[in-house]
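Most newcomers find our protein records easier to grasp once they have seen one. There is nothing in a record beyond a sequence line and a structure line. Getting from the letters to the tokens is the skill we practise here. An example says more than a description, so a record of this kind follows:
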Amino acid sequence: MKKVFLVLGIVACMTACAQTANGIINTSEVKRIEQVLASDDFQGRKAGTPGIDKAAQFISEEFKKAGLQPVSGGSYLQSFSMLRPKFKGVKGEMDKVELDPKNVIVITTKPELKVNEKDGYQLEYIKTGENFRSKVQSYLKAKKNAVVFVDTSFAANFPRLAGLKQLTFPMEHNVVFVLGNYQPKEFTIKAEHTIEETKLANVVGILPGKSRPNEYVIFSSHYDHLGIGKPQNGDSIYNGANDDAAGTTAVILLANYFKKLGNNERTIVFAAFTAEEIGGFGSQYFSQQYQPEKVMAMFNIEMIGTESKWGKNSAYITGFERSDMGTMLQKNLEGSAFQFHPDPYPDQQLFYRSDNATLAYLGVPAHTISTAKMDKEPYYHSSDDEVETLDLENMTEIIKAIAQSSKSIVAGKDTPSRVKTENLR
């Protein structure tokens, strides 16, 4: 008899949850949110423009209506700055011999930088026959002040280092590259840049966990797109309805859904990232705010507005084989009409190309859910990526499937295996 009551209880719970999903996640709401996010008023939501600021305000208002806690004080905006150094000039000497300015490239976010042998900079060398690109990256990632002498055998590659002067986070360390086979006893280098600051913001809302508040499950998307560009068919606004207003619509509706259920044991973080299209800076900044071992799972949602290669009621998961999270989601959908599949486009390296990647590199089971036919997506990065091209009813079913399949992880009943970082490139 107890087993009968248990089965009846489970069935009743599933029925109630399904009713809740149908009441909150519906095509009417999907259309409402999509039409706002992909409207011309937001001018294509390019990072750093007034259009994306309007989008951030709209998402904040939706998070507030859903009843989420703001990420910072009274604001849902997770604000940060990016810097772009523009080169003005450089002078240098090695053992009192003047350097050719073309042979010095300084990577810094300081307007004026002076370096000499007394400043404690590490002296490093890229020697002939070594992997030039790998060595350069290793010195940048070391986050230590260094003067790097580059063997003249790399003279043809050396000017490319100027390309490293791009949009970046504020840096405490500086790296000076000097072309030449020097081992100086004394040196001086002075570089000047104009530093342009771009202020950006993710939009983040929190639903605290009941019994495991320090364990996090993340639902995310990016809300930026390409802005205004070259006209196509007379339209210069790249609205990004599928890329990725679709994912952001899902995040907003999932926030409403889980708030309404009110039974999440783990803390849920709902995040709309900025600057994905120009380097993934929003998710990079976001990932720095969390200890990776406390993030149990990340559901990144991107481009779910069109049918997958399997047709309706289906989607794929990038990096499916890198954790058992996809298998958990499939199991939670047994008996339904919906199916998740492994990524069918492994040659496209999608696992590394979206906002899940930063946390995945830290071992978090962080995956992207998508339906995009990346071998022949007709409106990808086009001004024709409009709401009218989306299958909103199918998109609604995908969002419901994400809600249903993630519940055991949100409830703390399932914990996906960690991504093995040594296998990541």
About this structure: The CA atoms of residues 120 and 369 lie 47 Å apart. Residues 1-12 have pLDDT under 50 and may be disordered. The chain has two domains: 24-81+199-423, 97-185.
